[in-house]
Every structure is written in structure tokens, then in C-alpha cells.
Write a structure and sequence with these properties.
heterodimer; A: 526 residues; mainly alpha; 69% helix; B: 297 residues; alpha+beta; Helix Hairpins; 2 domains; 5-stranded mixed sheet; 7 helices; 10 strands; 20% strand
Chain lengths: 526, 297
């Protein structure tokens, strides 16, 4: 497919639009990747401001900063914005930029659809953020949108439902594009088992997205008709069942958490070998482990629902299945450590974030295992322990991997090396403040503080104050990242084609910054 | 409540709150039921296993981070697979997991066995309070609504916060010590969850459905919990307070309750004990949700 693009067509393409129209009409995977990354960072800051408002309210017991109504709206939108607006689009941005470069393709398979899947996101974001300003405010039912509470909400809920629909369409189109690109557009000689691991993890993630986004769309559509068209899917009075929603939601929701972590595994698996100057240990087992995690993710959903009161057999099944996920996840961690073992390591910023990722993500893995034990989960479900757990895997996991990847590929994107001093400052501030924020939350949850509350009993005051201080430190640290990126875009040490000493892969064979069109003739992989 | 009963409760609760204060800062609250004790031990077991693995994995990783550095002249090896090692680190975790699953399975089966109750109480979640009906056993027929007792002034910072800020109610649940209490849960509007950490009980209360759980508190005292499922504006303000008292004190409490029938929520409660209860409450739920729609929350 289109490995060679006629020169005149390109000229025409460049000649047609400049300025804003270039970005609106672009079909270039690099432009679209950049837009995804900028969009996700803006959403990350928006979600971050919401989180800091929550933390400000929780600094002390009592109500000081926001009233409970607004607090619940902010909790809900923080979750939705971070999951659908920040983390997922950021990974799609990486996929757009890097997958064609990594497999030696000239662009994504469906270039126009690629443009559309990005441009669907800003309207969805406007619906979400705009819902704060409609009568009744944004939805306050939690990002999981459980009925009957979500049926009680005002029109902010409808806006959230439409936003989720639109973002779901965008994700599905992005996923189809990635699957087709990877399966059909690899350079000659690039067999599946020679593909960089980032492409593998994204391929599996894309299948997960295609499988579960329609399920979410179905669930929220049923909410919509329950709200407005007299159906009773989730209303017991009409023969429905509120818990049915939870089953459908988590059938989407559990694969969703792997959608947010598998590409992170991929990024880290690219970075560790580069800075250990040693090939990735157990490439094949990494592929198998990723596939196993993806398959298992479909049969563990009800571990989010142990307290709904399912039969003992159900609890046992979902507990055993969930515990099994620890095995392939463990294999991955062992492989990374084995890759580092007897390497010749240096610790530039990408490597720091990658090692930080392994360390902190694994702690989230341990608490995940503890949450998997159903009787223990009965105690910690819906407490701050769970909040700590999923922030360890989503912030220290997904987000740190995104930072690692950003520092790693910035030279390829901008042509300049990122400033190591700023990058290292960003890393150390992030990892310290992250732990100051979220580690005490384990204690809060164990001691009995429920999540999603604007106010709490006095014995939780100290750790909450500490968490709030950490959160503000963590939030402000992210401005260092912005500084590092802007500085790198504007100038700095010129980056070589192979920007890092022993980086492997086709993306390092093209100049830095990568020209607008690459691999117009497919490279041959030996 | 007799004077001795009152004294016993006071002593037990002050002891409980003292040890809870010492202990529950970093760990689960002190368990007072068999199940909560098992959960406590399971968690400690898990913590120890995770700690050992943590030390093992990160011992190796940080050894490598400090010794296999380029700046220390480390030269990279070139190995990238080892089937034996890979099989070992797949099989060993499976065995560890089996070791964890075994005791957990036992606890699940015990938690789920709600048979043989001495007293059955139905708890109904409302936005934002709990209603209790004693359905069977000593105290049958007692019903009341339990509201947050913390004054608004304390919440809004116009008054000093009391010791049990947000964990105190006007009408606590009273149960006898050492008796098996079966708890039926439902809700009137949205999903709530009845959670008392010291009992190891957390069960969602789902409108239109009845779920059950049980506990048998082995120590007299006052135990406090909260609603654990986001249920709207005042989710943080619908606590649970359970007084576990001696058999005598319980009988005295039951006798004292006799004539009192709180009128609050009468309309939603009238059919509570009939077969039609599920439907009736679900109907009530439709009413509430319709009413509150324009308000937005």
C-alpha cells in the first residue's frame, strides 16, 4: 500500500493549506500524532486542576472549598477526563507518531479516518467540560456512572453520555486504523515476531478497544433511554436491575484498564533495552504475556463488584481469575529486570521514568493482588485503598510510561535533545510527590475512609493533609514537563538520527526531526 | 440500658477506641467478629508475601541499577532468553497464588453462609439516612430511622468538631453480643452500601432487591461505619453506628423501644414486611427519582 507517494501529490498537499487549515485537514500521521499529544496534555491539565480542587477540599475535615454537589461533579469529571481525555488519546498519539516509523510504513492505513478520529475528540471534550455550566451542573455519579444515581442526574449526564459515545467512536476508528496498519503495512522482512514490542502491545490493545468500546456505548445508551424514553433496563420497578449496568460497565471497564496499561508496557519495553545496551529479555514471552493479560481481562470484570452480593461461586471464580493475571504481569516485570541485569546502564530521563515505572507500577500490582482477594476486597472496596491502588497503576504506570516515551522520542519529533537537567528535575519531583500523595491513601483506606467523600472523620485528618500537600507538589511538577517540552521544541542540542547511543529500530534510521514524509519507499528488514 | 450495661459499653468502647486509635492509623480497625479477624489475618499474610517478593525483585533490580552501570565500566552481556528461568518464574507465582487462594476461599464460604440467624434486621438505604427494621428474633417489630447526629455547624466550621465527627447517629443499631445477626439490605432510591469495618461487613443496598450478609460481634462496644457507595450529595453524611451490648442490656433496650414508633418515613415503610415489599419500594424509588430530576442531583 502507498509506500511511494508521487512527489507532485505531496507538493499539492503542502501547497493547499497553511496555518490552521493545515491542522484541520491534515492526514499526516505525524501531524495527527502531535495533535493527539497536545490535546491529551491539555486535558491532563484540566483533569489535574479538578483533582487539585478535590484535594484542596480534603485538606481538612469539614466543608471549606467546594460544596458536596460540586465535589461529586469534580470527582466524576476528573475520572472521565483523565481516562478518556488524557491517558487514552496520549497513547493513540504515540501510536500515530511511532507505529508507522517503527514498522517502516509511510503513514497510517486510513489517513482520512485518522484525521476524523482526532477531530472528534475536541467536541467530546467541549461537551464534557461544558457540562459544568448547564443547569444542574456536570454529572455527579462517579466516572462509572452507576444507575439509579446517574438516572437522577440533570442534563450534564446526557452531555457526558454523548461525549462518551463520541470518544468511543474515535477510539474504535483509531483502533481499526492501528490494526490494519500493523497487519498490512509492515516493511518487507518485518515479520510479526520481529516487530518492536510497542507495536505488539498496541495491536493487542487495539483489539481490546474494538471489543469493548461498543459494550460501553451500549451501557450508556441504555442509561440514556432509561432517563428519557421510559425503558427500565436498570430500574427494578420496571423489571430491570441496577446491577446489570455494573456487569456491562465492568465488562468494558476491566479491559479498559489494560487498554491504558498495555501500550505503557510497550513503551517501557522499548526504553529499557536501549539504556541497558542489551536486547530485551524474553521477547516471545512478553508477547505471550501481553496476550494472556488481554484474554484474562475479559473474565475478571466482577472483581469490581464483590460487595454487590454475588453468590459464593461467583466470588470464587472472579477471585481466582483475577489472581491469575498476576502471573503474566509478573513475567513482564521479571523480564524487564532480567533485561537490566548485567547490562551497561545509563540513566537519562527516559530510563529514569522507565525504572520509576517498574518500581511504582509493581507496588500498584501488589495492592492489586491484595484487592483481588475477595474477603480483603470486601473491606477495602470503595475506600481510599482502591484510590491509592489505581493511581499507582494509572499515574505511576501509564503516565510515567508516557513521560518516559515522550522524553525518549522527543529528539525524533523535534530534532533536539531534551534538557537532561530539567527532565531529571521533573522525574525526581514527580516520583517523590507522587508517593507523598498516594502512599498515605493506603493507610486511609485500611483505616476506613471511604472514597468519593468531600468530608471525613477526624482520625483521617493528618494523612489527608499530607496527601493534599503532595498533590499540589505533583501537580506543579507537571509544569516542569511543559517547560522541558517547550524548550526542546524551540532549540537545544541537535539530535542525531540515532538519538540515543544504542537505540534499535527503524524509527532511528530516519533523520531527526523526522521529515514530514518518511519511508516513501519501504525499508527492507533483514 | 442498665447501669452496668452502660458502664460496660463505656469501658469497652473507650478501650476499643484507644486500641483502634493506636492500630487503625496504618491498618484495618481491630476486628470484633470471626470474619473480620480472618480478613485481618489474610491481609497480613498477603502483605508479608508481597513484601518478600518486593524485596526479592527490587533487591535484584537495584543491585543491577547500582552495579551494572556504564559509568562503573559495566560491559553489557548479550543474553536474551533462558527457557528454564522463564518456566520457573511462571510456575512459582502460580504456586504462591494457590497458597493465597486457599485461606481466602474458606473465608468467602463462611461469609456467604447466612443461615442460622438469631436476629434478622433489615437495613434500608435512603438518600441520606438508614432505616432499620428488626424482622425476626428478640426485638421483632422495632423499627427506626437513623440520621447523622453531627450538627451542621461542625461541618461548616462554625463549631468545634466533636470526637465522633460524622460517625455519630441519633438512633444507633443495638444488637446483643455473641449472637448471629443476619442483615437484609435494600435501598429506597439509589445504591448505598452498609459498611462497618470492625465487623468485616460491607454489602451494597440495591433498590428493588434484597441482599443479605451476617455478623456476630464477640465484644461489646460501639462500632462505627459509613455508607460506602456514592449515593449523591450527602453520601459522606449517612454513617452507621452499632452498639453491641450484653444480652440483658439488649432485652432492656428492646423493652424500652416497645411503645416508640417513629413516624418518619412511614409512607415508604408501610408495606416493608410484606411479600410485595420489593415492588413497593421500587415504586417509591421511581417517585423519588422523578421528583429530584429537575434539581439535578
Amino acid at each position: 500500500m502507498a509506500a511511494v507517494i508521487p512527489e507532485r501529490l505531496q507538493e499539492h498537499h503542502h501547497g493547499a493549506h497553511t496555518g490552521l487549515m493545515r491542522w484541520i485537514t491534515t492526514t499526516n500521521h505525524k501531524d495527527i500524532g502531535t495533535m493527539y499529544l497536545i490535546f491529551s496534555f491539555v486535558m491532563f491539565l484540566a483533569g489535574g486542576v479538578m483533582a487539585l480542587t478535590l484535594r484542596a477540599e480534603l485538606f481538612q475535615p469539614g466543608l471549606q472549598v467546594v460544596q458536596p454537589e460540586l465535589f461529586n461533579q469534580l470527582t466524576t469529571l476528573h475520572g472521565l477526563v483523565m481516562v478518556f481525555g488524557a491517558i487514552m488519546p496520549a497513547f493513540v498519539g504515540f501510536a500515530n507518531w511511532m507505529i508507522p516509523l517503527m514498522i517502516g510504513a509511510s503513514d497510517m492505513a486510513f489517513a482520512r479516518m485518522n484525521n476524523w478520529s482526532f477531530w472528534l475528540l475536541p467536541p467530546a471534550a467541549i461537551l464534557l467540560i461544558g457540562s459544568f455550566f448547564v443547569p444542574g451542573g456536570a454529572t455527579a455519579a462517579g466516572w462509572t456512572l452507576y444507575p439509579p444515581l446517574s438516572v437522577q442526574m440533570g442534563m450534564g449526564m446526557d452531555l457526558a453520555i454523548f461525549a462518551v459515545h463520541i470518544m468511543g467512536v474515535s477510539s474504535i476508528m483509531g483502533a481499526i486504523n492501528i490494526v490494519v496498519t500493523i497487519l498490512n503495512m509492515r516493511a518487507p522482512g518485518m515479520t510479526m515476531m520481529k516487530m518492536p514490542l510497542f507495536c505488539w502491545t498496541w495491536l493487542i490493545t487495539a483489539y481490546l478497544l474494538i471489543a469493548v468500546m461498543p459494550v460501553l456505548a451500549g451501557a450508556v445508551t441504555m442509561l440514556l433511554t432509561d432517563r428519557h424514553f421510559g425503558t427500565s433496563f436498570f430500574n427494578a420497578a420496571g423489571g430491570g436491575d441496577p446491577v446489570l449496568y455494573q456487569h456491562i460497565f465492568w465488562f468494558f471497564g476491566h479491559p479498559e484498564v489494560y487498554i491504558m496499561i498495555l501500550p505503557a508496557f510497550g513503551i517501557v519495553s522499548q526504553i529499557i533495552p536501549t539504556f541497558a545496551r542489551k536486547p530485551l529479555f524474553g521477547y516471545a514471552s512478553m508477547v505471550y504475556a501481553t496476550s494472556s493479560i488481554a484474554i484474562l481481562s475479559f473474565i475478571v470484570w466482577a472483581h469490581h463488584m464483590f460487595t454487590t452480593g454475588m453468590p459464593a461461586a461467583g466470588q470464587l471464580f472472579f477471585m481466582y481469575a483475577t489472581m491469575l493475571i498476576a502471573v503474566p504481569t509478573g513475567v513482564k516485570v521479571f523480564n524487564w529486570v532480567a533485561t537490566m541485569w548485567r547490562g551497561s546502564m545509563t540513566f537519562e530521563t527516559p530510563m529514569l521514568f522507565a525504572v520509576g515505572f517498574i518500581f511504582v507500577f509493581t507496588m500498584g500490582g501488589f495492592t492489586g493482588l491484595i484487592c483481588a482477594i475477595a474477603p480483603v476486597d470486601i473491606q477495602i472496596h470503595d475506600t481510599y485503598y482502591v484510590v491509592a491502588h489505581f493511581h499507582y497503576v494509572l499515574v505511576a504506570g501509564s503516565l510515567f510510561a508516557l513521560f518516559a516515551g515522550a522524553y525518549y522520542w522527543l529528539p525524533k519529533w523535534t530534532g533536539h535533545m531534551p534538557d537532561e537537567r530539567i527532565g531529571k528535575l521533573h522525574f525526581w519531583c514527580s516520583i517523590v510527590f507522587f508517593n507523598v500523595t498516594f502512599f498515605p491513601m493506603h493507610f486511609l483506606g485500611l483505616a476506613g475512609m471511604p472514597r468519593r467523600v468531600p468530608d471525613y472523620a477526624l482520625q483521617f485528618a493528618d494523612f489527608n493533609a499530607l496527601a493534599t500537600i503532595g498533590a499540589f507538589g505533583f501537580g506543579l511538577s507537571q509544569l516542569i514537563f511543559l517547560w522541558a517540552v517547550i524548550k526542546c521544541v524551540r532549540g537545544g542540542e541537535k539530535a542525531a538520527a540515532r538519538s540515543w547511543e544504542s537505540a534499535e529500530g527503524l524509527e532511528w534510521t530516519v533523520p531527526s526531526p523526522a521529515p514530514h514524509h518518511t519511508f516513501e519507499e519501504a525499508p527492507v528488514v533483514r | 440500658m442498665s447501669l452496668s450495661g452502660r458502664l460496660a459499653v463505656a469501658v469497652a468502647s473507650s478501650l476499643a477506641s484507644f486500641s483502634a486509635a493506636a492500630q487503625s492509623r496504618y491498618n484495618f480497625q481491630e476486628p470484633v467478629t470471626e470474619i473480620a479477624g480472618q480478613i485481618y489475618d489474610l491481609h497480613i499474610l498477603m502483605l508479608i508475601i508481597c513484601l518478600v517478593i518486593f524485596i526479592g525483585v527490587f533487591g535484584v533490580m537495584f543491585w543491577s541499577v547500582f552495579h551494572h552501570r556504564k559509568s562503573r565500566g559495566a560491559v553489557a552481556a548479550n543474553f536474551h532468553e533462558n527457557t528454564t528461568v522463564e518456566i520457573v518464574w511462571t510456575v512459582v507465582p502460580v504456586l504462591i497464588l494457590v497458597g493465597m487462594a486457599w485461606p481466602a476461599t474458606r473465608t468467602i464460604l463462611e461469609m456467604k453462609d447466612t443461615s442460622g440467624a438469631d436476629i434478622t434486621i433489615k437495613a434500608t438505604g435512603y438518600q441520606w439516612k438508614w432505616g432499620y427494621d428488626y424482622l425476626q428474633g428478640e426485638g421483632e417489630g422495632i423499627r427506626f430511622v437513623s440520621n447523622l447526629a453531627t450538627p451542621r455547624d461542625q461541618i461548616e466550621g462554625r463549631a468545634e468538631k466533636g470526637e465522633h465527627y460524622l460517625l455519630e447517629v441519633d438512633n444507633p443499631v443495638v444488637v446483643p453480643v455473641g449472637k448471629r445477626i443476619r442483615l437484609l439490605l435494600t435501598a429506597n432510591d439509589v445504591i448505598h452500601a452498609w459498611w462497618v469495618p470492625a465487623f468485616g461487613v460491607k454489602q451494597d443496598a440495591i433498590p428493588g432487591f434484597i441482599r443479605d450478609t451476617w455478623f456476630q460481634a464477640d465484644k461489646e462496644g460501639v462500632y462505627r461505619g459509613v455508607c460506602a457507595e456514592l449515593c449523591g450529595r450527602d453520601h459522606a453524611y449517612m454513617p452507621i453506628e452499632v452498639h453491641v451490648v450484653s444480652a440483658d442490656a439488649y432485652s432492656a433496650w428492646v423493652a424500652q423501644q416497645g411503645p416508640r414508633q417513629p413516624a418518619v418515613e412511614a409512607e415508604a415503610e408501610t408495606e416493608a414486611e410484606t411479600e410485595a415489599e420489593t415492588e413497593a419500594e421500587a415504586d417509591a424509588e421511581v417517585g423519588t427519582s422523578d421528583e429530584s430530576k429537575p434539581a439535578g442531583v
